[in-house]
Amino acid sequence: MSSLVPLYVILPLASAFLIPVFGRLVKGFQKALLTLVLLFLTILTFHLIFGGLKEPVTYQVGGWSPVEGIPIAIYLVLDGLSAFTLLIVNLIGLLATFFAISYIKRYTAQNNFFALLSLMIAGMNGVVLTGDMFNMYVFLEIAVIASYALVAFGIEKTELEASFKYQVLGGIASLLILLAIGMLYWKTGTLNLADISGILKEEPPDLFLTFTQILLISGFGMKAAMIPFHAWLPDAHSSAPAPISAMLSGVLIKAVGIYALLRLFFNMFALTYEISLVITVIGALSMVIGVFLAIGQWDLKRLLAYHSISQMGYVVIAVGMGMILMVQGGDRSVAALAIAGGLFHMINHAVFKGLLFLNAGAIEYVTGTRNLKMMGGLFKSLPVTSTTSLGASLSISGIPPFNGFFSKLIIIVAAIKGEFYLLAILAVLVSIVTLASFMKFQRYAFFNKSTFSKKIREVPFAMSLSMVVLVVLCLALSLLIFPGVREVMLTPAVDVLMETSNYATIITGM
Amino acid sequence: MKGLTPIVKKVAQLMSGIICIYGIYIVVHGHLTPGGAFAGGIILAGAFILLILAFGSEVVKLRKEETGSSVTESLSILATLILATAGLLIGSKVFFNDYLPKGTVGELVSAGAVPLYNILIGIEVAAAIITIFLALIIFKEEEEQR
């Protein structure tokens, strides 16, 4: 079992370099290869989750065993949280790739597109699996550098501008993260997450460590597009080709932003009240400001991009509330509930935001515009797109029985039980504004009077199928609320975060 | 792109061989001395870039060279992956396992598979830098033709 873990990095990386060689010779090679690789990895993830990931799997790359209890190899760690995030990455990646098979016909250089996409997935899988600080930085750079190129894929003026902005801000974020890694290495003399955690436990918290934590919050916060650091996101996510927007919004900000923050602050650093408060405040700001920035937008993809900021705010406040409760010695079951709500919302957001961006791509594919004022009356001519986007809109606004309702409900219940009344009120308020802005999208895109003179036909099969699968997932993920399913998928991930010191114990064996 | 004067051409011809050998030296001694695949690969690419700049070339020919260098780059990465995955398939079943005999410390042929990784990554870095360079000149030439 454990020898399958490196396949998550090997297979996408190999396909990224097989595509430029054989893609020139064999027609359709690039599409088939990447789809098959991601299908295999998705099935493998499901197998790992449902088929018995009882114990976390650790894998020592190169077979270097620890010397005197000090780990020297690069570790790959597959525990509940990694498996959960890998499921998001590979499942959304598979559906976005399948969508891209038809969508990408508008562009030239298909080989480059699929090679960069598989490189990005390899990087994200690496970030999620690695147990080594510097290795995490390397994989993070692989993922984001591929995404810089993919944002600029259309090479129009706006796309190049968005990509440049994204590169500059992403470069600053990477610099902050690298500086923090350097400072941690200076302090502890090791890069292994478990080893660092063991050393930090014995030292009293000081300003040096707080400064490192602030650097990491700013760096990964910029990758996750939390509010003071969000400037790149609306441009980058709206200019990229639709499958890439779905990957960026649905997966990249979670895998390299939120996941890394969770892993580092729960399993590596000792939790402190100040840092938990900072994280919660950043989350609340993102949640509120993001939605008010979104509601005024008329560019469809830009509207969706601002909603990503707001929805990630939900995830961050849920996790932040859990952190505060754990630090203050509050009720641990409420903390577990809050964290479960956050992780549940994370996978839900990946599914419905991925679907909404694919819908936006389908609308752009047939009408050639992203401006809501130019659309209208598409309901009759685009039945599949409009039905699926209605499902996704209801889901993101939190209408039962869609998945978004249940995760928001868990977060709000946890906020009330944990006596964070202000956050609970804000979460409800933001949800109402979200509903308003998606009613605007539905009305202007699908139900107004048609402004198109030419005949509009439904999108090709591959695109429709991806959208239908995602809308079914929007409904199916509601099942995670039931105990039987929740214990298999969600509870292992929550346990990793609740039992903060277990991670280090499993790896170092002490 | 036009070539430069005969003096430059002759000097570039004489120098590029030496630069090339120096690059190869740095790459193959990667496990013994400072430097290694990345630094050596850049020096190797420098030798080729010097020749292209001194002698000049047609756009059509440059395009062919770009295809060649990008394929070389992909192939050398694939070879690295195969070498690493071979450790997974044979021996102790560990990714990146160093299964070759280690040899004596300080000898050129030692340290198992590390020199092989160095050579492959050296080729990859050189090919990548040449590809970037060629992409930039092809872009500039096409702008001028327009």
TL;DR?
Chain A has about 500 residues and is mostly helical. The longest helix of chain A has about 35 residues, at about 330-365. Helix content of chain A is about 75%, strand content about 0%.
Question: What layout of secondary structure does this protein have?
Answer:
The complex is a heterodimer of chains A (510) and B (146).
Chain A: H1 7-22, H2 29-50, E1 57-61, E2 74-78, H3 80-103, H4 110-129, H5 133-151, H6 157-188, H7 193-202, H8 207-223, H9 233-239, H10 242-268, H11 273-295, H12 300-327, H13 332-367, H14 378-381, H15 383-397, H16 403-417, H17 421-447, H18 461-476, H19 483-498, H20 502-508
Chain B: H1 6-28, H2 37-55, H3 59-89, H4 114-145
Helix pairs in contact in B: 1-2, 2-4, 3-4
Attribute tags:
heterodimer; A: 510 residues; mainly alpha; two-stranded antiparallel sheet; globular; B: 146 residues; 0% strand; elongated
Treating each run of at least 4 consecutive H or I residues as one helix, how many helices of chain A? 20
Assembly state? heterodimer
Radius of gyration of chain A from CA coordinates: 22 Å
Class computed from helices, strands and strand pairing of chain B: mainly alpha
Q: State which percent range the strand residues of chain A make up.
A: under 5%
Low-confidence segments of chain A, given as residue ranges, are: none
If you had to describe this structure to a student in words, what would you say it looks like?
The complex is a heterodimer of chains A (about 500) and B (about 150). Chain A contains 20 helices and 2 strands. By secondary structure, chain A is mainly α. Chain A has one domain (about 1-510). The two termini of chain A are about 25 Å apart. The mean pLDDT of chain A is about 90. Chain B is an all-alpha fold and about 150 residues long. Chain B has 4 helices and no strands. In chain B, helix 1 (about 5-30) runs antiparallel to helix 2 (about 35-55). Chain B is elongated, with a radius of gyration of 18 Å. The two termini of chain B are about 15 Å apart. The interface between A and B is medium-sized, with 15 and 18 residues.
